[in-house]
Amino acid sequence: MHRVNVLKEEFSEEKEALVADDGHSSSKAVAVRKEQEQPPVIVCGLSLARLGRTGQFIACSFSIFFFFVLYGYLQEWIFSFGDFKPYGWHLTLLQFFWYTIFGFIEQKLIFKGSAERKIPLLTYAFLAFLTVATMGCSNTSLGYLNYPTQVIFKCCKLIPVMIGGIFIQNKRYTLLDFIAVVLMTSGLIFFTIADQSVSPKFDMTGVALISAALCADAVIGNVQEKTMKAFKANNAEVVLFSYSIGFCYIFCGEVLTGTFMPAFSYCNEHPQIYWLSFLFSLVGYIGILFVLSMVKSYGALLAVTVTTFRKALSIITSFLFFTKPFTMQYVWSGAIVFSGIVLNIYSKNRDRVGNVFSSRRTLCCTFVSIQIIAFSVLVIITFFT
Questions:
Q1: Beta partners for 46?
Q2: Residue 116 per-residue DSSP state
Q3: Less Cβ crowding at N or C end of the chain, within 10 Å?
Q4: 129: exposed, middle or buried (C-beta count within 10 Å: 0-12, 13-18, 19+)?
Q5: How far is CA 8 from each of CA 37, 131, 229, rounded to the nearest angstrom?
């Protein structure tokens, strides 16, 4: 998830190039020139250029939906094993192991292993610590929370990101950003209250863990952005070193706390966890590659929009395939959160959205329509639970 931050520099350069335009060319000519300059979608070294721009977007969007919905399904399936709750960190250990293997393969096959390490090991040690905190706390929180509640919290990453941006990079945010944060925070509070009232699985430990994961994710995003600007490292290098060092952290932590052998014994008694963890890691890794490709080829606006609706679909899938209590308070509190997300997307992409929507009235109608559609889809859940 946090790997998307690696491409932030490229987005900034794209934005500066658009601003530098003399403004005398027609918008149509600019759009044609921009489309010609956009790179084709390339995943694992395979180009999808022959599908055309529309075909590439459809293929990319479908792949993001498929792989990340499957990722969430596998994650919840693993935690559905009755006694697996205490072993969330061991799942993270397995995930880091597989991500290290995937990063090594990508570095050797895609980048031909020619690029030397550009980021200092000490910096990687810090990035690995943040990565461990992000993914470890996120995985472990699922032992204490419903999956939909975890996803709703992840949707509100903007809150710690803004705090980190203010204190780490001295960034300034608009009024719309702060309104979006208020909406997300309010929706989170109502969603948490709803979960606490109807779910026997709810535990404040899970809230603390997922909150810690979001804070670490916010810090890693800002630190990674500054690091990538300074050292110009490729994605595969960052993945390889961050996850390999993180694997050592988790392994040492499990050995020192005495949790490694019980988790190892449990997984040996339930060997299906090993192949589930492999599939879980593989689909997550491939999903990230498609997100990065979409961001690079189509920009952050479309990528964030697709991933946001993917999260909504993940919540619906969770209610459909896993038995859990349901209340309508989930629907309207979730709608408040997604309103904040849509507002944040608009705030970050005003110029691009303005080119699509010719008037404020059209924009407002579209915003309301999105909320009505989202609300209607969420209501459908009530007929299946």
A1: 43
A2: P
A3: C
A4: middle
A5: 18, 18, 9
Range of the domain at 283: 2-11+48-383
Question: In this structure, how many other beta carbons lie within 10 angstroms of the beta carbon of residue 1?
Answer: 18
As a whole number of angstroms, the distance between CA 382 and CA 35 comes to 42
Measured between alpha carbons, how far is residue 354 from residues 139, 302, 359, 360, 374 in Å? Answer: 39, 14, 8, 9, 22
Task: Locate 288 and state its tokens.
Answer: 């990230």
Question: By the 8 A CB rule, do 209 and 141 touch?
Answer: yes
Q: Is residue 89 part of a domain?
A: yes
pTM of the model: 0.72
**Contact in structure between 203 and 146 (CB atoms under 8 Å):** no
Tokens of 384: 């299946």
- Amino acid (1-letter code) at residue 75: Q
In a domain, 367, yes or no: yes
Contacts of 338 (CB under 8 A, 6+ apart): 155, 187, 308, 312, 371, 374
The mean pLDDT values, 10 residues at a time, for the chain of 385 residues are 48 43 45 54 70 81 89 88 83 94 82 69 90 90 83 76 71 79 79 72 82 82 71 76 93 93 91 92 88 72 72 78 74 78 71 52 51 52 47
Whether 27 is in a domain gets the answer no
Domain membership of residue 19 (yes or no) is: no
